[in-house]
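[job 4471] stage=fold_predict status=RUNNING
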Amino acid sequence: MKKMKVDFLVDSETTVRAAFDKFHAELGYPKILKTRDWFPDYELVDRNGKLVRAEAEYLCSGARGHENIENECDVIICWEDDWPERKIPCLELSRHIIQQRRFHGFEKNELDGISDHLKRLRDIADRTGNLLEDLRDLVKTDEIHPYSTRFLGYVFGGTMELRFWLDGWEEKNEEAPVGVQVNFELSDVNVFASIPLESVQDLSVDQWKDLAEELKKANFAICVVPTGNGEKRRKVETLWFYYSCPMGKLLYETPQNILEKLNDKVVWLLGFINEKRLALFEKS
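[job 4471] inference complete, writing structure tokens
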């Protein structure tokens, strides 16, 4: 099939539909009988004159959310096919359509001094790594100490993290109940806890008030973060407890004070979550 081009980035269900609408005939569907905002998105006619029901998604796996997908849809139109277990056909547009290019070259003098900038970033990454390693060693000397830790991220990705699990806590989806994150983009250091909603859904109003009061006294805030991206960013599955410190403040602290301050926050949060049983636990 001949390659086709669009003059926009395909990055959502809306732009998937725009790309398909432009080239539906070339893609094997000469007629669009119906297009709508509810499932399924299209009623089409293929080259053999057969009626075809189609659902559009940016990622093919987005169609999983429709309970009757196998009975009420004949094909999924998507940009990327990331659902190998699907039981209905998929039209992956990225195999046939070239989207607008992102790269437009470099500006004059844009790369001047880049090696010096990279060296500086590597030095910062090394110092941050040393901070997190020293913090890990310090936390392990406390009465409540993690049985396992893991380093995540890198300076060029914008964050570096150290995560903690206490004995008995379940390692679920590569997440950890407690972590320390250095966020270079936002220029802050965060001590945080990721709490599954299923761990707190049975708490009474009074228990919630007591929980919030204890966190507030320890200078931790509470927030929720919806799952998914873009148009699919709806469902809330996790609570976050976090303490945030601007990196600029650390310039006026000694290395020992920085470590002790972060250690106190991590140890308090580990003990708090363990005492309140807010982590998921391994099944015995």
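[job 4471] summary: The mean pLDDT is 87.
[job 4471] exit 0
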